[in-house]
Amino acid sequence: MPRIPAIPYAEASRLTRFFYRFAKRKFGAVPEPMAVLAHHPGALMSWTLMEGSAEKTLRALPASLRDLAVYRVATVVGCSWCVDFGTMKQRLGGLDVDRLRDIDDYATSDRYTETEKRALAYADAMTAQPPTVTEEQVAELDAELGHKGLTELTFLIGVENMRARSFHALGIVDQGFTSGDACRVPLP
């Protein structure tokens, strides 16, 4: 249960109800972060526009690499909602969710490509407190992904840090977006 109660549909404003209906059609349920952010219409609008815009415009990288880096941040920060939602996104995208069980051992796992390993290490370095990103990491990823790809990766990792830390602070936990035990990847 979140630390701030979600606003139910019956008590939501007309605009919030619109967002709820759209989200329910898209995801099968209203994401709890949306229902909590509904306490502040400006925050809800900003978050919704940012998420929608990012989903439509950030396409320089393969979805598998984007989603994997974002998922890694969620596990490092410990946001169970983000892990749950991220697993669902990868499953619906036709990606191999079984390999997520090896996410903590990505550096030595043969389930990840070298590019994925570099992106995951970059996600770890950006998420560390304080961040530990090195010139070498940036140079390697820039050579491989290009300026546009590296910028996209950096932005998405930063957004997930904001998202995961915010949802974690508000006590928003997994919502059951994944079926079976797919979301039962242990958090650190």
Structure description:
By secondary structure, the chain is an all-alpha fold. It folds into 2 domains: about 10-55, no CATH class; about 65-170, AhpD-like. It has 7 helices and no strands. The protein has helices spanning about 15-25, 30-35, 40-55, 65-75, 80-90, 115-125, 135-170.
CATH architectural designation of the largest domain: Up-down Bundle
**How would a textbook summarize the main sheet?**
none
Total E-strand runs: 0
CATH topology of the largest domain: AhpD-like
pLDDT below 50 for ≥5 consecutive residues: which ranges? 180-188
Number of helices: 7
Percent of residues in beta strands: under 5%
What structural category characterises the helix and strand content? mainly alpha
End-to-end Cα distance: 21 Å
Oligomeric grouping of the chains: single chain
CATH superfamily of the largest domain: AhpD-like
Backbone CA Rg: 17 Å
- How many structural domains in the coordinates? 2
Layout: helices, strands, pairs:
Elements: H1 14-27, H2 32-37, H3 41-57, H4 63-77, H5 80-92, H6 114-127, H7 135-169
Helix pairs in contact: 4-5, 4-6, 4-7, 6-7
Pfam family, one: CMD
Protein name: Carboxymuconolactone decarboxylase family protein
InterPro entries: AhpD-like, CMD-like
What is shown here, in short?
This protein has 188 residues and is mainly α. The chain has helices spanning 14-27, 32-37, 41-57, 63-77, 80-92, 114-127, 135-169.
Relevant terms:
188 residues, mainly alpha, AhpD-like, disordered C terminus
